[in-house]
Amino acid sequence: VQLLRRQALAALETGLPVAVTLPRSADARRDALADLPLGLCDIADADEGLSASLRAAQAMLATNQSLGILLPDVPGIGVADIQAVLDRFLDLREARVTRGGRMGDDRPGTPLFLPHAIAIRFAGLTGDDGGRSVLRDEEVELVRFPDDRAVRDLDTPEAWAEWRRDSGTAR
Length: 171
Known about the structure:
single chain, Spore Coat Polysaccharide Biosynthesis Protein SpsA, Chain A, two-stranded parallel sheet
C-alpha cells in the first residue's frame, strides 16, 4: 500500500493526469490514495491480472491522448526516472513506445509511454499477458538506466524479500 502511494505521488509530480486501476476489493489501497488528486478506476475483472487494468486504462483515454504506465511493484523508479522517459517520449513527438530499461541489455521495463493508436489496442487484451501481445511488433525506444531500477519487478515473496534486503527497507 505504501509503495502504491509512493508511485502515485511520483507520477503526479510529472504534472500529467494520473489514474490508478484497482480491484473493487482493494479498500486499503483505495484509502491510501483517497487524498490524492487522481482518478480511481474499479476493475471488476481483476482476476485477469494486468490485462484487465490495461483495458480499463485505455478506456479512460480522451481522443488522441497517449498513455503512460507505471507499475506499483517496480520500486526503484522515482520522479526523475519517470520524467526522463516522458521527456524522451515527447522528444519523439509521442510517436513511438518509450520505456525504461537497463544499460547493457534490451529488456524493457517501466515506466512506459504509448502513442494513442497503440494504447487503444489494449481494448482486446485477455489473460495476464499484460500488453506483450500488443507491443510485440512495435519499435520501442529504451531510456536505459545504469542499474535494474526499471526492470526489477516484485512479483513473488522472494523478490520482495530480496529487494528489502538489498534496499535496507523494512516490511
